[in-house]
Design goal:
The chain has about 70 residues and is an all-alpha fold. The protein has 2 helices and no strands. The chain has one domain.
Length: about 70
């Protein structure tokens, strides 16, 4: 349960960073470094989340499951 909460928290922070990049892009008309910084944070968090998911799978903390059907 804790791992699911961590993944959801990461996703919410990533989405927040994406929207802050959009806000800075519109507000600053693309002339400042804040847009680039916000998008760099988003990419870094996305890569970190991917690495954590792969590490969780490798250690057995996360188990994939198929769709029941």
């Amino acid at each position: 349960m804790l791992t699911k909460a961590i993944v959801v928290l990461f996703l919410l922070i990533i989405i927040g960073s994406l929207f802050s990049g959009l806000f800075y892009l519109v507000k600053d008309k693309g002339t400042s470094e804040r847009t680039v910084r916000a998008l760099t944070v988003r990419i870094s968090l996305s890569v970190l989340l991917f690495v954590l998911l792969m590490a969780g799978y490798a250690t057995g903390l996360l188990q994939p499951h198929g769709i029941a059907g």
